[in-house]
Amino acid sequence: MSFHLDEIFSEPPARVAAIVLLLVLLGGGLAATREGELRPAGPFDPPRQSELPYLKPLPSKGDFEIWATDDYEVEALILSRERYRFDTEAKLAPVDFLLGWGPVTQEPILSEVKWSQSGRWGHYRFKGELPIEQREIARNTANTHIVPDPESPGLRRQLLRLKRGDAVRLNGYLIKVDGANGWKWKSSRSRNDTGNGACELFYVTSVEKIDTP
Length: 213
Fold this sequence. Notes:
Helices cover 20% and strands 39% of the residues. The protein is of the alpha+beta class.
């Protein structure tokens, strides 16, 4: 459902209020479809990564040259999902997934830790004492910038339809990107790093949802 501003504000005040409320409710409903319930899944093995013998050129996108550094495959639970539209990175990666595997997809960790994302970073917080060392959380999660393969029809739409709580299998490459104006972006190639530069930049060539009990 869509409205033009002149159509909305030419209505009587009471009707305007009703329309605005409807839009708010619709917006909330659309957001909710991307926020599924977190339930135990897996546990999944760590991502499988294989360094390529050379930088592999991938289909470019706009003014960006894309190079694969590693084959990469991951089975994981989406702990959080954040859509991006307005930053430079959104031209390549329209969505980030905070992916988890191993013990973080199991209770009691799954429900005791609160997962979130903002500003291209992944975050977690908790109260009390964790039944796992914090470094194990870092080793078993990855804030992942998702770059859909532009030559795979429908792939972008499939990826954008995924929500928190989905278990997925993703295949593709870790990449580095060179922009025409000197802008650069590259993936972490380790699961043990944290902080700035520790996110995975993942060029996805296929996606599959994994059924969970």
